[in-house]
Amino acid sequence: MNRPLGPIRRASACPHDCPSTCALEIEVLDRNTMGRVYGAADNSFTKGVICAKVARYAERVHHKDRLLHPLMRTGPKGSGQYRRISWDEALDRTAEAMLAAERDFGAESVWPYYYAGTMGLVMRDGINRLRNAKRYSGQYSTICTSLSWSGYLAGHGRMTGTDPREMAQSDCIVLWGTNAVVTQVNVMTHAASARKKRGTKIVAVDVYDNATMQQADVKIILKPGTDGALACALMHVLFRDGHADRAYLAKFADHPAEFEAHLASRTPQWASDITGVPVADIEALAKLLGERPRTFFRLGYGFARSRNGAASMHAVSAIPVVMGAWQYEGGGALHSNSGMFGWRKTLIEGLDVRDPKVRELDQTRIGPILTGETQALCGGGPVKMLLIQNTNPMSVAPDQDKVKQGFAREDLFTVVHEQVMTDTARMADIILPATMFVEHDDVYQGGGQQHILLGPKLIEPPGECRNNHEVISAIAKRVGAEHPAFAMDPRELIDRTLQASNRGTLAELEEKRWLDVQQPFEEAHFLKGFGWPDGKFRLKADWPGNPYAAPAKFGPVHDMPAFPDYWTAIELADEVFPFRLTTSPARNFLNSSFTETPTSLAKEERPDVLIHPDDAEAHGIEDGDKVELESPRGKVRLHAKLFEGLRRGVLVAESIWPNSAYEDGKGINTLTGADAPAPVGGGAFHDNKVAIRKLPATAAQA
């Protein structure tokens, strides 16, 4: 008797905004159904390991609440009242709104808005082709990387770093500003393997005792936004105790003698007073680093969430330079390898028809933009039409009360192309059902590694779901946007882009499954020089001349410290708002993705805020009490959870929950600010001064 064949495993790539960009193997049960997801064991970075939320991705793909048909709003904005319409009607109404806005207010009144709900180059970035062909308002994408990238570039001059697989040769691995267990599990796989095989020490530096800390050999818990002080104290000790590599500094860094003099007053005691880290812990970590120059610094995106994040990144990234760690295999640093892929995305993004005179609106400042603030609008007219793909600003954008006010405008026509009914989709006039990654073809790059990966279409989409490229091309036809790529299918775009980028062909990528494009050792370690004309790391940063691609410089850029230092450009606690709050990543969510899946919801339970027991006692708060957090921007209600693993005066709310998870519909980003920090803007989500109070019993029961 013949036995039935089991599920077929097909190669793919994780589409989500995570530096790991895991190579996947997916069970395909039939042409409409997927099963479990596995990490590809033969990929040298993924090594068969993926996070639990992606392993159960079938919960998302086959969720009972998938959006399956185009919808048109019939009730008030936010009411959730819609009726089903045809694709033709949905696209016609979308095009009519775009053409009307263009006719009455100019092309810049239309704002295509997107981000990283998928990291596939075709499905994520294709919206820019429509934008460029029609001269709609541009988007300056600041919500994730701008502060950390500009800080890294300030010293290195190029956005590349050590091959993460070199952790196998490291004597010490420092995970700074990244909860890797939660946000890039493969980093912990490589680090733990190195510890087992060669006794590598794992150091975690963060603001609370998170899942990564619990696997580390050395824990350094500091106050939010004080990383620069800790970095300077560590370098002070390295110079003081003879562990600075002066020969390396003379060859590869500018102004080393002046920098050493600058550090003379940045003692461990000075840093301890700022960071809350005991002097003994600072001394011990400096000694460990000094004795192990073959140290790998994995620098995370926590730096991008603070108003002084660029200065802090510059300071921390100077430590391996002072140590001379870049000379060694397994030494140096990695923040992102995004600068090494060399993509030529003219077809995908329509770069050949881009008009540089069109205004670029700051993605993070969508609240001020939609509420008509002149500066946020770059002095231009209002936004009258929004086309949104791959993002959920009603949950994830800061200064949420302004975001809600803007979306509620009756003169704003909003179209959202989405997979499930998000907070943003609920504010749309037209909702278009979108595919998920296994239902379309795309190509991906690894930000925290070195592979280009193919994510092919594996199953048919449910209902009437259409992929981003289909939707953009259909809208383009209706609004008169012209570009050859609108007539291509995703596979042709992938093939043409690979060839234009000197990365072979789609057929070759399909055969290989991924391409390893890691730079040679000398290049990755800057042994031929850093990315400046003289080849030297910039200890003295030129912040006004920072090479990060920004339409302008923002904030008090001329006040930024040239040499690495602690810069107090954060929301310091005060008498009215005596706590500092970070909105750190939740293990079972990824931004606002996975917040609808049953297992993730069950594991996260409810929105909580972590508070030190001594702070809780001082405020009459007990574990599980309902509390109210207040910042200069608004108030949020959630539950208190007593937690010893943070500094006094620090609160942590692991997010991002949908607004509906909070009793008054106000999500955590009600508390965060949308101002543009120096030098290039960004989202300072972990940089909030707040007050906390226990709610009276009547309010707690409301």
From TrEMBL:
UniProt-listed CDD domains: MopB_3, MopB_CT_3
Cited Pfam families: Molybdop_Fe4S4, Molybdopterin, Molydop_binding
Keyword Acetylation assigned: no
SMART domains noted in UniProt: Molybdop_Fe4S4
PANTHER family, sorted: OXIDOREDUCTASE YYAE-RELATED, TRIMETHYLAMINE-N-OXIDE REDUCTASE
Domain 4Fe-4S Mo/W bis-MGD-type intervals: 7-63
Entries under SUPFAM superfamilies matching the protein: ADC-like (SSF50692), Formate dehydrogenase/DMSO reductase, domains 1-3 (SSF53706)
Protein name from the UniProt record: Dehydrogenase
InterPro entries membership: Asp_de-COase-like_dom_sf, MoPterin_dinucl-bd_dom, Mopterin_OxRdtase, Mopterin_OxRdtase_4Fe-4S_dom, Prok_Mopterin_Oxidored, YoaE_C
Family per record: Belongs to the prokaryotic molybdopterin-containing oxidoreductase family.
One GO molecular-function entry: iron-sulfur cluster binding
Domain of life the protein comes from: Bacteria
Alphabetical UniProt keywords: Iron, Iron-sulfur, Metal-binding
Species annotation: Labrys okinawensis
